[in-house]
UniProtKB/TrEMBL annotation:
Name of the protein described by the UniProt record: Uncharacterized protein
Annotated family: Belongs to the MAPRE family.
SUPFAM superfamilies on file: Calponin-homology domain, CH-domain, EB1 dimerisation domain-like
EB1 C-terminal domain mapped to chain residues: 173-240
Gene3D superfamilies given in the database record: 1.20.5.1430, Calponin-like domain
GO annotation, biological process: cell division; protein localization to microtubule; regulation of microtubule polymerization or depolymerization; spindle assembly; thigmotropism
Location of this chain's protein in the cell: Cytoplasm, Cytoskeleton, Phragmoplast; Cytoplasm, Cytoskeleton, Spindle
Stretches assigned to the Calponin-homology (CH) domain: 12-114
A cellular component annotation (GO) from this entry: spindle midzone
UniProt keyword annotations, A-Z: Cell cycle, Cell division, Cytoplasm, Cytoskeleton, Microtubule, Mitosis
Keyword field contains Flavoprotein: no
UniProt superkingdom: Eukaryota
Length: 240
């Protein structure tokens, strides 16, 4: 499971599915993948499939600073080495809390855990008791988006005693003119073109990665010959 290609189904698992899985396995209440950036959650996920291998007393669920988080990842890397898991952890990226980096690592963790038989009698709450901040980890409420939202037209009418506001002096409502609507439509059209262009560029480079992955897995090209073969794929254009 350590060598998972870019096209592996593991990297197509969505955030909601990952969060539901983590919260179910560890009895936590995460609402964002990057809330696991401290490394403590990753340590316990590995502990759930290898009970007793992870020294949970060294894991810090209250880690806030990068230094504290790095200590958690040191524990995790040591466990990887002990289990002969050939996986390098990009600690410097993960501790920054970047959503994409944390998403990809969590996807990898799930893929690995799915490939190993989990312990049916694993008690995540009990295992966290020896960890710093582990006792209250499951009670922490994750990030929730603000419940405030713009006042709807219906609400505005109710608050005004049933009288709907009309455009004009004192109403505070600006009705866009035809020129503004035209300008907005042009902006939407430009944005759609930009999105189409970006999607084509994404597919173009993703196809290159896929071709290189297939090449590396093939036994037809080996040794020094593989370098020019990879360069040919990298420098190829749409016309080629």
């Amino acid at each position: 499971a350590a060598n998972i290609g870019m096209m592996d189904s593991a990297y197509f698992v969505g955030r909601n599915e990952l969060l539901a899985w983590v919260n179910s396995v560890l009895q936590l209440n995460l609402s964002r993948v990057e809330e696991a950036a401290s490394g403590a959650v990753h340590c316990q996920l590995i502990d759930s499939v290898h009970p007793g291998v992870v020294p949970m007393h060294k894991v810090n669920f209250d880690a806030k600073t990068e230094y504290e988080m790095i200590q958690n990842y040191k524990v995790l890397q040591e466990v990887f080495n002990k289990l002969n898991i050939n996986k390098h952890i990009e600690v410097n990226k993960l501790v920054k809390g970047r959503p994409l980096d944390n998403l990809e690592f969590m996807q990898w963790i799930k893929r690995y855990c799915d490939s190993v038989s989990s312990s049916p009698n694993y008690n995540p709450v009990e295992r966290r008791e020896t960890s710093k901040g582990g006792v209250g980890a499951g009670k922490k409420v994750g990030y929730k988006p603000s419940s405030s939202r713009p006042c709807s037209a219906a609400t505005a009418v109710r608050n005004s005693g049933g009288k709907s506001a009309r455009p004009g002096a004192g109403s505070g409502i600006m009705v866009p003119g035809s020129a503004q609507i035209k300008a907005l439509n042009e902006q939407v059209a430009d944005l759609r073109l930009s999105v189409d262009s970006l999607e084509k560029e994404r597919d173009f480079y993703f196809a290159k990665l896929r071709d290189i992955e297939i090449l590396c897995q093939s036994s037809d090209v080996e040794g020094p010959e593989i370098i020019p073969a990879i360069q040919k794929i990298l420098y190829a254009t749409d016309e080629n």
